[in-house]
Design brief:
- By secondary structure, this protein is an all-alpha fold.
- The protein has nine helices and no strands.
- Helix 2 runs antiparallel to helix 8 and helix 3 crosses helix 8.
- It is globular.
- The termini are far apart.
- Pfam families: TPT.
């Protein structure tokens, strides 16, 4: 049984976690927008992100900071769709940020809970509580009203953002199913996602012509930043 002090700290920790998540989520959008305004090669950034994630988790395992099972080919095959949807979500989200202003991007991404509720209903999770359904529906209506009043409407940007919502929904549904059925931790899912993503992303940045120009431009910007310091 929890002590009174632990019981009192639980709501505070939950509130602190929610507040911290909100700050980090908002900051991530602004940072991504600022980076993309200076460096438009979003697929290269995504590739470097996945490479850094895989290396950090691997070295964390070697140093004993994280627990990670050996890579299993059967598990990797089952998680391949999860990786595809994750990278599609991030790729289209970054592409939409190039043309959509930040308030509208955040508003459009708020359609994700509605899409998740609909996908969960059709996948057999049942009908959610009426309070949850109403709050999600009202949020979606607010997004539509905001979009109608957006004078800087960018059709391509909106299309990319909506595709990002779709792929994020599919990713969340699949990752929940994979974690529940296979007992994978969040760190293990991230590691599988990174190693499965890299071959596909490397092929894309080469096929689209981003590489090697994007890498040389990134090094040039990094050097100019270092020199300014």
């Amino acid at each position: 049984m929890d002590s009174p002090r632990e019981a009192e700290s639980t709501p505070f920790l939950s509130l602190f976690s929610a507040f911290s998540y909100g700050i980090a989520s908002m900051a991530m959008v602004f940072i991504n927008k600022a980076v993309l305004m200076q460096y438009a090669h979003s697929m290269t950034l995504l590739t470097l992100q996945q490479l850094a994630t895989g290396l950090l988790i691997h070295f964390g395992r070697v140093m004993g900071y994280t627990k990670l099972k050996d890579v299993n080919f059967t598990m990797a095959k089952k998680l391949l769709p999860v990786s595809v949807f994750y990278n599609a979500n991030v790729a289209f989200a970054l592409a939409s940020l190039k043309g959509v202003n930040i308030p509208m991007y955040i508003a459009i991404k708020r359609l994700t809970p509605l899409a998740v509720l609909v996908a969960g209903f059709f996948s057999g999770k049942g009908r959610p509580p009426i309070q949850v359904s109403l709050s999600v529906v009202f949020t979606a209506v607010g997004v539509i009203i905001a979009a109608l009043g957006d004078f800087s409407f960018d059709l391509l940007g909106y299309s990319m953002a909506l595709l990002s919502v779709f792929f994020q929904t599919m990713y969340l549904v699949l990752v929940e199913k994979s974690g529940a059925e296979d007992g994978l931790s969040s760190v293990e899912l991230m590691f599988y996602n990174s190693i499965l993503s890299l071959p596909f992303l490397l092929f894309l940045i080469i096929a689209t012509g981003e590489f090697p120009h994007s890498l040389s431009l990134l090094l040039e910007k990094a050097n100019s930043l270092t020199c300014s310091w």
